[in-house]
Structures are given as C-alpha cells and as structure tokens.
Design brief:
By secondary structure, this protein is α+β, with helices and mostly antiparallel strands. Helix content is 27%, strand content 29%. It contains 15 helices and 31 strands. Strands 3, 7, 8, 9, 10, 11, 12, 21 and 24 form a 9-stranded mixed β-sheet that branches. The protein starts with 20 loop residues before the first helix and ends with a helix. 43% of the residues are buried. The chain binds one RNA strand through residues 9, 11-19, 34, 36-37, 90-92, 108-109, 138, 140, 142-144, 146, 151, 157, 199-202, 209, 218, 316, 406, 409, 441, 443, 475, 477-478, 480-481, 509-517, 519, 528, 530-532.
Length: 569
RNA sequence: CGGGGCGUAGCGCAGCCCGGUAGCGCGCCUGCUUUGGGAGCAGGAUGCCGCAGGUUCAAAUCCUGCCGCCCCGACCA
C-alpha cells in the first residue's frame, strides 16, 4: 500500500480521555475511533491487526478440529427464557422488541443459540463429538465501559462450543481447546499464563482464563513462583490451616461498652487487641435471606467463594434493615452469639480462641469468645481472599500477586445448558443421554490491545511480526530524488509480489516525519532508502524492536525479509 | 446508581472568579526556501463557546434544567 493513499490518520497529541497506553497508541496510530460510549470503529490499520489475530485463531481452531459457523447476533427472548438467563443475566443483556412487540436481545454470548442449533441436528452418538466456533460481534451493556477497546460494550469475540457424549469426551475437548489457546497466544507474541478461574454467569464446573501479564490489567492473579499454580484472585484457594488443638478461653464471655466503635481498626485501637484476635461478622443477603460470615479480623471475605458455597443467585452485603432484623442492632456490632442467621465461618477461624466480636447490641462488643464453646458454627469453608505470602495450595511455597488482562476463557460447562434446553442424543444402547458441553472464548480486540500493552516503547507500538498490520515499511528519504523513489518502488514491487504486507511511504514529507510515523505505527521492519548508502547500491533495514540496523545491497533485501517473515520474528 | 471532574477550531488547551472585539500551540490550505528523526519564513481558512431556558443594555463567562464524555466506587466475561 502506498502511504500517500492510505486512510491512516496518525496523531502526535495524546488524547485526553485515554488512560491506557494501548488505548492512546491505538488512537494515535489511527487504529480506532470512538463512536459513542464503549463502541468503536476500527480504521483500516486497526482492522488489519484484528484480521491477523482472527486468522491465527481460525488456523488454530481448525487445526484443533473445530468448524466455523456464523450465528445470529439478534436472538429471541424465548431461547433465553428457556435457559433461565433472561432473568439471571441481568442488565448487561441488551433487550429490545420489534414492530410486533416480540422481545429480543443482542447476543452477549451464544450458548443458547448453538445449543438450539445442535439439539435439532444432532441425534445420535455417531454425530459426536462436535466443536463449532464463530467470530462474531458481541454486545454486553457494560455498566462502565473503559480502557478503550479493552472493556467496551460492542466487541469482537471468537466463541467455540464443544458437544460430547460424556464427561471423558468433554475433558478431551477441553484439553484440545486449552492447547489451541496456548498456541494462539504464543503466535500472537504474547506473554501469558493460564489461570484457574471462576466461571461466573456462564456457569459450569470449572474454567481457566488466559491472562496476558500486564500491570494495567484489570484482573489480579495469584501465582506460585515455584510450581505452575496460578489463579484469578477471586478463585485462588486458601490452604486450610493445620489442625491445632485449641483450648477454649479460660474466661467467660464478657460484654464491654464500646461506644461508636464499629470497624476492625476502631475495635483494635479501643480494646488494644490485634486484628488477628477479632472475629469479623459480615451479614450478607443471600437471595434475600441473612447469612453471617465469620472471618478473622485481618482477612477479607471473598464474595465469589461465599456465593459459590451457598449456591445462591444473588449475594450482597445485607441492607441496614436486614442487619437490624438479624442482629437487633445497627451495622457495626454484629456477632455470632444470638444472631438470627445461618452462621458459616471461614477456615481462618479454626484455631481462634479467646477472641473479640460484636455483641449484636449497639455500642457493645464481647471478649473472651471461643468459637464452638460460645456459639455453634454450622460449617467451616474457604471463604477468604488469598493474600500475598500465603502458602501455595499445590506446593506450599509463597504466593505472589500479578495483574493480567483476560484475553481468553475456557469453560467446562457440563450439562448446564444441554439439560435445561434438552440437547440429547441416543447412545449405543438407544438410550437418551444429555450432551456434555464446553465453551471457549477469545476477545479479539482485547487481544490486540493486550499485545500493544505488552509491546510498545516511548516512540509507539512495537508489533509482534505475526499480528503486525504491515510487516515492512519502505522509507525513501526524499521522494523528489528519482534514484531514491525508484529504488524504493522496485523494492516495494518485489516484496508485494511475494505477498509481504508492505507500505511504501511515498509521501513528500521530511524523513523525520516518516520515521516518527513508522515508529508510532510499529512496523517491524523499516527499509530506509537514502542517498549515501544507495550510492553504494545499499539500503538500511532497521528492526523496530531491537533498533538494530543492517546495511544490505538492494538485491539481498528480499531474501532478508522473507527469512524474517518465515521465522516470524 | 453514588462521589469527583470536564464539554471553547480537526487535536491538545487558555479565557470563565471579576459579563463588553473568541485566543494559543499543533494540524489544515497557498507560495518560497529546506530535505536522514515531527523544518523556516510569509500569507490564509476554520467556532450555534455541548443543548435549552433564564438574569442583563450586553452571557463562553452569572443562574436553572438537560445531554455527552472521563475518573473513582459498586458490578462484571
């Protein structure tokens, strides 16, 4: 492509509303423009990056035995009502109706549609397993879109769905996708890590997220530096404390006047105790019913673990009136003794004795409380957020934290959708069986943004070659000098015929301007055609990443570039 | 939805307190010079000052309402 004819509006100014470097660079490099909140247009340069990623995704999905389909984005309410998600998906599901007042939604994901398709077409075990995928625009009415293309409402996603006859098959399908994902992100030049994850509203038995490591990432990851264990913070298991024989406090429970003392910090300051000696009692509303979660004062409750443990649909910190109902006191003085709620304790309570807790009475706390002796605990469970330095649940070494961008997510769905939507087949014995499903997503735009987040410098983007919108840019230093522009043109033709994605910067601009633009848009190789070197029949090839410059005879340029492209570097 | 901030030329911003000719830098157009890391000189174009009301002789500026955007939080694949 000739630069002079390209629709590639680059900018020097940093847009004021872009926070992330990737977002700023995508705007400055003329890749995206915002249409409205959380909705972006991709310009040619940005769309080429998208297509490069999509192509890699297609190749690896096909290689793993999946087949591409294209499903509707507008979906009827009935399907979602059938799966139950019309009610449970919440406000992220954008709903609307047509002229006949029939209800529809814009697809945020396609489990319902694919399950509907498959249940009508697959009747026997002979037709299983199958894995179908698509690359589609999804719409999720995000509560707060941000970070440009990283978290927007309309976005491109590859989603695949596997259907197997049984658990064993589903496991194999899952592994295949897991391996395909590793190949995909490796080819995209990303440094990433698969982590154990919660499956959220998609549901299912377990899942892994593919995280691109980046300080700007929205997700926190707990990982072990020794073994391979890594998990989303919300999922990371906390090791049960070793069983120690605890003897109850020798003192009886004592009520102490603690006027206005509510938070753990205030309690500790007032009573001169450490947070480790205080039991924090949090009252939650689980589908409207009060549940008391007890945890050691220095720890934080992981609401997702609580939600999963209770198996409820909605979980939130209890509103004031529910707290008053359950404890008989305002917020800040809840305790386990006498509370009218189910009591569940985090494992951190094991081994605690002689502790401080709320008295369920305004302005009073209790001390010398011993769990078990003074109140019953219906269950102990892992309900807290892991902390840096905690032991790894696999090998016992120290856990560290890092941040990541979720670019892919694989779920083992089990029969969540196939059961409710009756995706059944006849087995070898002619008996009806429920298909076992998996689903597998990749955020395409997010992958591109993550790649930029991980590959840039002060001058701009540094594309990994496999996803670079263009691989080579040829820069004649002065287009008004015939020898320079003709040589540049020759090299351009040579590379273009070979199928290289190449830009000829034929603009009548000063060399400095062209160099700055080339750096900003991050083309992996820049071929500079200048008067001094050309006098010897040579040109310079500069690597954007290493900044190394090779001086080569014009005739050797093609071989040099082709080698690099073949090796993907 | 709660808290904070911002809407002025294509982009980045000043002007607003204290009402009276709408400005700066970059970009854009023309000409000349220049030509290996965002050139110099000269000339030029571009604004419902977010929208709608109100106060006033007079509103970018003061008041009210609305809309949009950004940040933090709640929430979320």
């Amino acid at each position: 492509m000739r630069y002079s004819e390209m629709f590639l509006p680059t900018g020097r100014e940093v847009p004021s509303d872009a926070e992330l470097i990737s977002h700023q660079l995508m705007i400055r490099a003329g890749m995206i423009r915002k249409l409205t909140g959380g909705i972006y247009s991709y310009l040619p340069f940005g769309y080429r990056a998208i297509r490069k990623v999509e192509q890699i995704v297609r190749e690896e999905m096909d290689r793993a035995g999946a087949q591409e389909v294209f499903l509707p984005m507008v979906q009827p309410a009935e399907l979602w009502q059938e799966s139950g998600r019309w009610v449970h998906y919440g406000k992220e599901l954008l709903r609307f109706h047509d002229r006949h007042e029939r209800e529809y939604c814009l697809g945020p994901t396609h489990e319902e549609v694919i399950t509907d398709l498959v249940r009508h077409e697959i009747k026997t075990y002979r037709q299983l397993p199958r894995n179908l995928y698509q690359i589609q625009t999804k719409f999720r009415d995000e509560i707060r879109p941000r970070f440009g293309v990283m978290r927007c409402r309309e976005f491109g996603m590859k989603d695949a769905y596997s259907f197997d006859a049984d658990e064993t098959g589903a496991e194999i399908s899952y592994r295949k996708m897991f391996e395909a994902y590793k190949r995909i992100f490796t080819r995209c030049g990303l440094q990433f890590r698969p982590v154990d994850a919660d499956s959220g509203s998609i549901g299912g038995s377990y899942s892994h997220e593919f995280m691109v490591m980046a300080d700007s990432g929205e997700d926190a990851i707990a990982f072990c530096s020794i073994c391979q264990y890594a998990a989303n913070l919300e999922k990371a298991e906390v090791v049960k404390p070793a069983k120690t024989e605890v003897t109850a406090s020798p003192y009886p429970v004592e009520e102490i006047h603690t006027p206005g003392v509510k938070t753990i910090e205030e309690v500790c300051a007032f009573l001169r105790v450490k947070p480790e000696e205080v039991v924090k009692t949090l009252v939650f509303a689980a589908d409207g019913f009060p549940v008391a979660i007890l945890i050691r004062g220095d720890q934080e409750v992981n609401e997702i673990k609580v939600k999963n443990y209770l198996g409820c649909d909605a979980l939130e910190l209890a509103p004031d009136d529910l707290i008053l109902d359950a404890t008989g006191s305002p917020r800040g003085f809840a305790g386990a003794i006498g509370i009218k709620a189910r009591i569940i304790a985090d494992n951190s309570l094991m081994g605690m004795t002689d502790c401080v807790m709320g008295a369920n009475r305004m302005d009073y706390h209790l001390c010398h409380v011993s769990p078990g002796r003074d109140f019953p605990v219906s269950a102990y469970a892992d309900l807290r957020i892991i902390r840096e330095g905690d032991p790894c649940p696999r090998c016992g070494e120290e856990i560290h934290f890092a941040r990541g961008i979720e670019v892919g997510h694989v779920f083992k769905l089990g029969t969540k959708y196939s059961k409710t939507m009756k995706a059944i087949y006849l087995d070898r014995n002619g008996r009806e069986q429920t298909m076992v499903m998996g689903c597998y997503g990749i955020g395409i735009g997010r992958t591109v943004a993550a790649a930029i987040e991980q590959n840039h410098d002060a001058a701009g983007i540094v594309w990994p070659l496999p996803i670079a919108p263009y691989q080579v840019i040829i820069t004649p230093v002065n287009v008004n000098e015939k020898s320079l522009s003709e040589t540049a043109e020759d090299i351009y033709q040579t590379l273009a015929i070979k199928g290289v994605d190449v830009i000829l910067d034929d603009r009548d601009e000063r060399a400095g301007v062209k160099f700055k633009d080339a750096d900003l848009i991050g083309i992996p190789y820049r071929i500079t055609v200048g008067p001094k070197k050309l006098a010897e029949g040579k040109v310079e090839i500069k690597s954007r990443r290493s900044a190394e410059v090779e001086t080569l005879p014009v005739a050797e340029v093609e071989a040099y570039i082709m080698t690099r492209i073949r090796e993907g570097i």
